[in-house]
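Changelog-adjacent note: as of this version, every example in the card shows the full chain rather than a window. The one below runs 326 residues end to end.
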Amino acid sequence: MASVVRPPSTMSSMVLSRIQSTNHKNCKPASYRFTFPRVATRHRAICCTDVTPWDPPPVTYALKDDTTKGEFLTGSTALFETLSSDQTESAEVLTTDTRQVMKLGYIRWPMWLMGPLVLLATGMVPTLWLPISSIFLGPNIGSLLSLTGLDCIFNLGASLFLLMADACSRPNTVDQDPCLSQPPLGYRFWNMVATLSGFILPFIMLFGSQKGLFAPQLPAISFAILLGPYLLLLAVQMLTEMLMWHWESPVWLVAPVVYETYRVLQLMRGLKLGVELGAPAWTVHMMRGLVCWWVLVLGVQVMRVAWYVGFTAQLHQNGSVTASEA
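Full-length structure tokens:
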């Protein structure tokens, strides 16, 4: 409370000492004094408080569900609180996981381009642009080894491609469960039927030629040059698929498409070599039948990819069966 008191007013006077006229003759000294009457005043006190009358009243807020019983923002009064060891470890784990995800992301991004480039460089470029004359030197062992080495180069590129595809399908962190995928039993059965059919037809052709069922007879070295690399790569494909089924790798659906696409090119190369070798007409027709067979199998494999994508999408919508059980 503060008070302001006005002091009493005093007598005010004003004195004019002298008035001088322009006429020097009538110059008389005079003094005039004007006196103002004293005005009586009362002592007035002005009381001031912290809140003026024109300010709005203070607004108070109340919580509907006050579980703190009037204790708002209760806690430690220290300005800087120390973190516990559990909180520090959890923060470090989150930071480490984030760094691992970023590192894996940086490593996997080039794989999306490196994998197809490796497959193209090892498989398609030598088969399409390498002249036949540099590979085929005649019906001898050297030509057979040259063709086998060319297919082995493709097999190395296909293996690298499948490894990169398997790495891209893995989870980002080590804590997550690996993405295991087991092919259905029906898929494995029909895939083995297609592969064994690709084995049986060339051996039937060789057996008929040796027994005189097909004339003229096809020499063994010519048969090895035409269909030897084909049979070797078919055996490698079968072994690769069985290993993927055993490891439950998600790449089991991609491997047949990779190998069967190259097999069509391999058989087309065999048709060109058949003209160089002077192979019988029945041999050329048999190889054309093999080309048609593997084109048909390749089309079925591509349709299986579309079926599997739709099947897994339906499982995710239902949410009743996991992908591993499917």
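Structural remarks: Helices lie at 85-129, 141-168, 185-210, 220-247, 255-277, 281-318.
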